[in-house]
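Just scan my protein:

——
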Amino acid sequence: MEKITSFTINHLELLPGVYVSRKDKAGDAVITTFDIRMTRPNFEPVMNTAEVHTIEHLGATYLRNHEEFSEKVLYFGPMGCRTGFYLLLAGDYGSKDIVPLMVEMFTFIRSFEGEVPGAAARDCGNYLDMNLPMAKYLADRFLKETLLAIDEKRLNYPEG
């Protein structure tokens, strides 16, 4: 079997950043898949499920309520390796196009207070697996260390 595209990226060279993972066609529409990489694969600890789950709930809620992007959001959810998230948008986008959106979203997560949306037994299949303080910490770290000073090496996958 042929390797899928995401397994051909050199994860030993991959830094936290915002990357276009792939672009697909659905009829006449382009679907852009983004790799929102929050931790450096194989060099630092992965995120625990509780904070990943919290970021997923807060991020999805923020994106699906966003004035400009709500109708374009197809999916926001975690990578199985727990080093980041995938965001699928209807439309043909580049990495730079969504950096302001990611800054807004992670600022929202960093500053969030109160009950996490959907963190109740009737709304979620694993509602007890949440960690808001750690999600806020990771959002702040990603903002400060990656998003607010993002450069080309964190917007384009490494070569080879």
